[in-house]
Amino acid sequence: MRRLHRVIAAVLIGLAGLVGMAPAQADELPTFTLTFKPDGTFEPARLEVPAGRFKIELINESNEPVEFESIPLRKEKVLGPGVKSFVVITISRPGEYPFFDDFHQNVKGTLVVKPKE
Predict the structure, then answer these.
(1) What is the pTM for the complete model shown?
(2) Spatial distance between the Cα atoms of 2 and 11, rounded to a whole number of angstroms
(3) Can you tell me the distance from the alpha carbon of 13 to that of 31, in angstroms, rounded to the nearest whole number?
C-alpha cells in the first residue's frame, strides 16, 4: 500500500509539472491578436501568420458571448463578454483557413498561413 501511495504521489507531481509548463511554453510562442469588436466584426478580419506553431490571443470587446471557430483548423473557443483567452495552433501547410463566430455566423474571417522563412 505504501508503494502505491508513492507511485500516485509521483504521478501527481509529474502532472503538476506538466500543467505548470504549458502556460510558459505558450507564452514563448509568436503571438497574434484577434479582437471581437462591439459592432460584430473581427479585427483584423484577415490575420496573417507564419507556418508553424503560434498563439492567437482572443479578445472579446463586445457585450455578448462569442465563439472563435474554424472547422479546417479544428479549433473553437467560447469567450464571455469582455473576456480574453487564447488558442495555440500548429500548422505547417501555407494557405487560407476560414474562421467565424459561431454565435454570429455572419461574422467571418480568414487566417492566412504564410510559408516559413
Answers:
(1) 0.74
(2) 14
(3) 30
- At CB < 8 A and 24+ separation, what contacts does 80-87 make? 84/57, 84/58, 84/59, 84/60, 85/57, 85/58, 86/26, 86/31, 86/55, 86/56, 86/57, 86/58, 87/55, 87/56, 87/58
Exposed / middle / buried, residue 8 (Cβ in 10 Å: 0-12, 13-18, 19+): exposed
117, three cell numbers? 522563412
Q: Read off the C-alpha cell for 44.
A: 483584423
Segment 4-38, tens digit of pLDDT: 454 444 444 344 444 444 455 556 899 999 999 99
90, three cell numbers: 500548429
